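User: I'm new to structure prediction. If I give you an amino acid sequence, what do you actually give back? Let's try with this one:
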Amino acid sequence: MRERLAEQIQLALGRLLVAAGDEGAVPPVAVDSPRQKEHGDFACNSAMVLAKRLKRPPREIATALIEELGDADGLVVRAEVAGPGFVNFWLAGERWQAKLGDLLRAGDRFGKSDAGKNVPVQVEFVSANPTGPLSIGHGRQAILGDCIARLLDNAGYQVTREYYFNNGGRQMRVLGNSVRARYLERLGRAAPPDPEALANEEAAWSDEIGGLPVVFPRDGYQGDYIGEIAQRLIDSDGEALVDEPGEGRFREAAETSLFAEIRGTLESIGIHFDVFYNENSLYDDGKIEETLGVLRETGRVYEEEGAVWFRYSDLGLDRDRVLVKSSGEPTYLLPDIAYHRVKFDRGFATVIDVQGADHKDQGPFVCAAIQALGHDADRIEFVFHEFVTLSRGGKTVKQSTRKATFVTIDELLADVGQDVFRLFMVQRRPESHLDFDVELAEEEDWTKNPAYYLQYAHARTHGIERQAQARGIPMPGADDVEPARLALPEEIDLIKKLGEFPEVALRAAETRAPHHVAYYLREVAGLWSPYVQDKNRHAILSDDAGLTAARLGLTLGVRIVLARGLELLGMSAPERM
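Assistant: Good question. You get back a string of structure tokens that encode the predicted 3D arrangement of the chain. For your 577 residues, that looks like this:
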């Protein structure tokens, strides 16, 4: 409907321009939905866009546009000039009614698009170091990335979901030494300070546990899961690792155990990856050295105090950055640059990195280096999300990853379930701080819990079908529905809202913003539930066969849209609740 109106407006504008002696191109027409219902179905600002060109006041042009447009081939029943020169349009009710038939004929393909033209897109998300269970912050990123991928799939893109398995660097050494300390502690052995760790200023704090001095790495991981990994090593290897040099064997055991747990957690919230890309492969395949070599060829690499730097100040950034430490170990930046080079080599037209707000500083440096290497950095998109706090009873639950005093995704899922967890994580825009209200998430009343509110609206459509079957009334096909019988204002409003779904889904995909779908589903349920509740005015089943078929068709339309929207959010669409 929006596109049809825009086409009619563009034709009318063309005639106005010709009448004014202007043979130039007609500017694109933007048709938007007013925020307030009383301002019409659609509005456009074309009169203001053309005011300078035609040297006429916008309201005067708007009036002329209304006259030239007329009823737009039966599409428009009313048009008004508003404000400085907007034109508000009200469309014919029968045009909206006819959209229900289109929806029913499309069925579960309603809202699908080929806009993406099978263009290859990579969505990389979660990519958490295997240093502990996934926290609720990781959970927000997981759901956000998965929903973006679902939306892009729906829009016709060829999507690859990827997890960057970052198992290198200092954090992994700290993890290994933490397990080693717990291993020695449980065997009654003191853990001597690690000379290499001391040399790298990763030395330790000392703690008295059971009367035994145990030395941990600086900021060591202290959760119970570290002791559990150590115990499994004792069960399998006994004391054979007491004199094991370094943290390697302990790190390997921790990495294997924790990553298996991470994958299990992701599967429990309905997330599956196409690719797990291992950071170590960048070293094994020579991509780190190759990338450093190509960066040197740009003439912007220099050495200072034993470290290797990249001159980002030449590229307009505020400071230069270290690529390789004086110890010879790459910083996080160099593997990130190498990894993005590999992404482009693999043929992705666009790469979307979903990351926490704490990574905002890194993005511009990766992009600048990629641009300096001859790639189009505009093909890299970052979706940053703000942090998640957990509250219960109005009080924030304090969390610390290092001390493992945080609520894991698994623990939260046990309390609220997958569907509630997913909706709560995606119902706000990514750049907004998210307060996860546990009490609200645990609420079983569908009128209070937003996830159940959506699902109950869907379940009600099946309940109505069961009632119809009990009375021997079949569900109608698209050709059995007489749309004109749906003439009440609230029925027209509901059909209008259902008809917006394809546009909402596509806009959410293009803007990488799944919360648009969550908001929209809330609006659909907000129209449908009161409609069903008012059985006197809106009896679905009645002695009027034509009206019954029409309202059952509306019921099916609501079901299709709610089910499709819930699918895009990765939620189930129950038939009973």
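You can read the tokens as a compact description of the fold. Here is one thing that stands out. The mean pLDDT is 91.
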